[in-house]
Request: fold
Amino acid sequence: MRFRIDIRRKEGLSDPEGLTTLTALQNLGYSAVTDTHFGRTIYLDMDGDDAAAASEEVESMCRRLLANPVIEDFDIEVVG
Amino acid sequence: MRFRIDIRRKEGLSDPEGLTTLTALQNLGYSAVTDTHFGRTIYLDMDGDDAAAASEEVESMCRRLLANPVIEDFDIEVVG
Reply:
């Protein structure tokens, strides 16, 4: 079973990487771009057939290690 | 219009961040995890209504600045 975890900063927190990229894109002439945000994606392959149990385990991994719940939101999705 | 760009290493290339995370998860007791890969996600907000033209522009941004086509694959998706 493969999970995809999308991690991004909570709304309202500054995203310096996104701001720098926005400036760089506009300097390259891409003037239609109005905003840029960065996030991280983690793909996890897991043994087992119980999707609900695995999903709970992935959420626990996010809280304990993969994401920083203070400043980040995450979404978990089964992708295969 | 909002685009989501998923960038990840091409198949077969080593992913040291993923390997380290896999070891850390297994050390924390998550023994069902068999593999871990990292990727980056970039959200771009763009002006304009022509989705096809904007999509081509985003692909050009990826090739010129956002991704490294030598070692990375990317997917572009309209998300809003």
Observations:
- The first strand of chain B starts at residue 2 and ends at 9.
- The beta strands of chain B are 2-9, 33-46, 72-78.
- The two ends of chain B are 6 Å apart (CA to CA).
- Chain B touches chain A at residues 6, 8, 18, 21, 24-25, 28, 30, 32-48, 54, 57, 61, 64-66 (CB under 8 Å).
